[in-house]
Write a structure and sequence with these properties.
Helix content is about 20%, strand content about 25%. The protein is α/β, with parallel strands linked by helices. It has one domain: Rossmann fold (3-Layer(aba) Sandwich). Strands 5-2-1-6-7-8 form a six-stranded parallel β-sheet. It has a two-stranded antiparallel sheet with strand order 3-4. The radius of gyration is 16 Å and the shape is globular. The structure holds zinc ion. Zinc ion binds next to loops. GO terms for molecular function: metal ion binding; nicotinamidase activity. Its EC number is 3.5.1.19. Pathway: Cofactor biosynthesis; nicotinate biosynthesis; nicotinate from nicotinamide: step 1/1. InterPro entries: Isochorismatase-like_dom (IPR000868), Isochorismatase-like_sf (IPR036380), Isochorismatase_Nicotinamidase (IPR052347).
Length: about 220
Amino acid sequence: MWSKVALAVIDFQEDFCPPNGSLAVNDGRSIAPAINHLLSLPFALKVATRDYHPVDHISFATQHPGAQPFVSQHTITSPENKDETQTTTLWPPHCVQRTKGADLIQEFESSKVDLILDKGQDKRVESYSAFGPPFRKPPVAMSGFGTKLKDAGVTKLFVVGLAFDFCVKHTAIDAAREGYETYVIEDATKAVDQSENALAASRAEMEQAGVKIIHLDSDELTMN
Ligand SMILES: [Zn+2]
């Protein structure tokens, strides 16, 4: 039953965790025991992703004169198709390639994953989803995640990690759209915006796309 089931641990990196992360998610580090427990289950494929940006990445507010991190929005146009755009929040610089902030956190037993995939390396585009940037006509800077799932014969995917309302959410929505039976285990994630309204909005957006939001004690995780 587990033979077609994968686990994706999204962006469990120093820059997304207190105390020193440049884009620290409140209590981000606290989900390590939950994620390590999930790694002990017999998933056919366990993938960790890293946000892994060049120093001049388009999502950094510092690249846009006058922009404020967390506040300013920026519209990114597909480098391959001017009709595809994405309007998104700008961030403090984070997860810069070959810096400590880009490391997976030490508490995360990353030696138990089969594969570590990087995303966000193309400075021209933002990639919240583990699959790649939202530009798909044609696809731009895809990570290879989709290919790995297909090659492994996966049909069902559990998504955890950071952050619930950005990279976890977009990975799960993409997965559901690709036809995977997709679950987000909410107590193995943390959100950037932890207000109840924002959490409810993220849950609704995912559920509308066909994603199921579950918890660690779900029957889905005790299947034999
Ligand atoms: Zn990023």
